[in-house]
Each structure stands twice: as structure tokens, then as C-alpha cells.
Amino acid sequence: MFDDLKGKTVVVTGSSKGLGAAMARRFGAEGMNVVTNYRSDEEGARETVRAIEEAGGAAAAIRSDVSKAECVEALYDAAMFSFGGIDIWVNNAGIEEGAPSDQKSIEAWQRVLDVNLTGVFAGCRCAINHFLEHDMLGTIINLSSVHEVIPWPHFADYATSKAGVGMLTKTLALEYADRGIRVNAIAPGTMNTSINAQKLADPEQRAATERLIPMGYVGAPEDVAAAAAWLASDQARYVTGTTLFVDGGMTLYPGFQFGEG
Ligand code: BGC
Questions:
Q1: pTM for this structure?
Q2: Domains defined for the chain, CATH in brackets
């Protein structure tokens, strides 16, 4: 637990399920006001809010499509209306759609880039404007992926967007460091969430995935939530512009694990 988080307000985009929901719940357990956000899964967002309230936190569920800058502004306005300010903004919402690159439509490519990269920029811009206007030491966490650095066939759009998130994070961290605004990223590997449910339900695909994880098992959403809580807290006050990999070692060239090479 991180005492300084208590009473602060956090926005978590895409928090009706998966990593976003786990982070929202963790922030709730830290005693924060949590603005959860969803695009279509209203029931999931309400479930997240219920869980936070049951744990004694305060939460609101706001519908907004982060791929549209004006909707991100509306999400910010709703957060202000609900809790009167923001201290932490987590750009988590993301999508992935696999297809061979020679068959991928420009529309599909654009959809992924709009949510995963432009949406993240729009969220950062909103939060930074708020922190500057109120002369605050606010902090931003962007959800990247191991595919910030690992190329991923059939997911060229996704991997490109996550590489972009890494550079966006570093650039904004540098740009606003002297104002005390910290910008970091978390790069999860394969986690036990609905985005991976189909492949993890298939024993062969699960085994193939586990072979890519030196620690040998798929991560839990709570592992990412713990990293987010720490990065958001004052314990990480000197940390900015970094990507924290939470991946069981997936980025450590697993093919070399047993000394081959
Ligand atoms: C994706 C997962 C994938 C993992 C490792 C993540 O960014 O969301 O679907 O299993 O990367 O490839």
C-alpha cells in the first residue's frame, strides 16, 4: 500500500475489464477516487465501480471512445465533475487485431493506431494541461507492451503503436520533467485477461506462449496493477521516462534461456 495515494483521483481508460479493471480496483483499494472508463462494456465498468465501492473507495463509470480527442476531453470533464480534479492519468485502453500485413486493410491499421497511440496522446495532453494549469506534480502511466521492442508478425499495427507509446512516453517525460510531471510506461507480457482468453484456452497455444516466458507462466492482471500503484506513488518520485516491463522475462530473448547460441 502507498499512503500518499489515498484521497487522490485517478483516471483509468479502458477499465471495464482486463488490466484496466485490475488497476482501477487496486487504486480503489489504495483509497483513491477512481474514474473508470469504457467504450461499449457498460456492465463491466459498473462491475469495476461496484468492486471499488465495496472495498470502500469511490468510483464513477464514464463512457468515452478514447480514439476521438473530443471524447477524451469529455472524459476529463466528467472526471472533474465527479471528483473536482485529477492527480494521475492512466492510458490503458488498447485493441489488437491479428491479420497478415499483406491483407490488413488501412481501416484496420488506422483503428489500432487511433486507439493505441492517438488515444494515448490525447489522454496525455489532457492530463498535462491540467497539471500545468494547476501547477501540479501529476503523473501519467501509459500501457505499452513487450511489443514496444519485440516485433510481432500479423500485429504490425499493434507493435508499431506500442513502439510509438514508448517514444511518446520518453519524449513527454523529457518535455515536462522540469515541471515535475512524470510520464512512465508499463509493458506487460502475456497476462491472464480476456484479450488472451481464446489462445490460452487452447492447450497447444498456451504451451507455445509459455515457452516464450522464461518464468514459465502467464502473468496476473494484479502484477500490472502493483507496478501501476508503485509508479503512481511518491515512492517512484525520481522515476520518469521509463518503461517498466512486467513480462516474466519475455523480453530477455527466451530462445537463449538454456545457454544455446
Ligand atoms: C498482447 C498479448 C500478447 C502479449 C505477448 C501483449 O501486448 O496484448 O495478446 O500475448 O503481448 O505477445
A1: 0.98
A2: 3-246 (3.40.50.720)
